[in-house]
């Protein structure tokens, strides 16, 4: 009989199939971004901890310079996989693959850098924020300060109103869609530019509750029937070059229950709230859209839509 933590862990990315981790190895944007950030941040002789290591590839990147890397993984199948991969690669002996829960594990010594990639668009589903905040409390209690450097260092999240096509060979299906960021999607019309709704700095105390209310100036006539969520991970800040090493998640587009007609010049008011690590449906249910038609400003019509 599974306990509550074990049941929930099925949704954390801790027990996803092995082949999913193999797909992540083939994600060139993810791999190149993390390799560059880890190469920049890890210095010779450093002690590194990775929480939620999967195949162990990010720990292996760190092992190129680090003296010691602790790679923590909860899924026993992935533990075997990571240990097998380490044995096949140079510097793999520097990586100790630890079978443990990231919510509970602490390394036997202070570390300089913590890598944690439990990241979903909008910080939903996976427990990046909770894991890091839990780690900070336990680490400070055992070792005192300062805290290690975290990779990613920060996350910037934005939202954008869309007119989204939901016709699949004549079959209408308003579904959640994940879209590549470097591809033009003919069925997607951007009705206004994105607006940043949250910036999470992992070096600072974080709240798992995310809430936002903001306005958009509509640039095109259309029907607002979806909201796109954008998540940019700042993997490392390269201070001497005044630059960052980033990784952009796929866009996540959530359908609204009912589309609302709008015109260029209208003001679109959007609000939502959710918990970091929460479900996608919980965010869908919390989205509220108000369209203020600017055509007759003194008697502006307000149409309220709930997703």
UniProtKB/TrEMBL annotation:
It comes from the Bacteria. It holds the Pfam family Methyltransf_25. Residues 48-137 form the Methyltransferase domain. Signal peptide: none annotated. One of its GO terms (biological process) is methylation. Keywords: Methyltransferase, Transferase. The keyword Transferase applies. GO terms for molecular function: histone methyltransferase activity; protein-arginine N-methyltransferase activity. The keyword Cell cycle does not apply. PANTHER family: PROTEIN ARGININE N-METHYLTRANSFERASE, PROTEIN ARGININE N-METHYLTRANSFERASE 3. This is Methyltransferase type 12. It comes from Massilia violaceinigra. The lineage of its organism: Bacteria, Pseudomonadati, Pseudomonadota, Betaproteobacteria, Burkholderiales.
